[in-house]
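Pipeline run #58 for the internal structure catalog. This entry was flagged by the ingest filter as a single-chain record with no existing model, so it goes straight to prediction. Upstream metadata was stripped on purpose; only the residue string is passed forward. Reviewer on rotation: M.T. Logging verbosity set to normal.
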Amino acid sequence: MLGKTYLTKQASLLLEFARTTSDSELSAKLVSKAADLKSQADPLPDKDQGPKAPDVSPGQAGR
């Protein structure tokens, strides 16, 4: 699964490209795709909450 940060960054880049193109049809498609990515990112948590390594427990790192 892609993370919220990644999806948000991709949406931002698509909007940037949409602003720079003079092709209105392409711009509309880019904005639409950016909205799709944003809707995918919205329900995700703000930080990556992937699994932790099984041999690492809080308070024991760096010993």
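catalog note: Residues 24-41 form the longest helix (18 residues).
catalog note: The chain has a mean pLDDT of 82.
status: ready for reviewer M.T.
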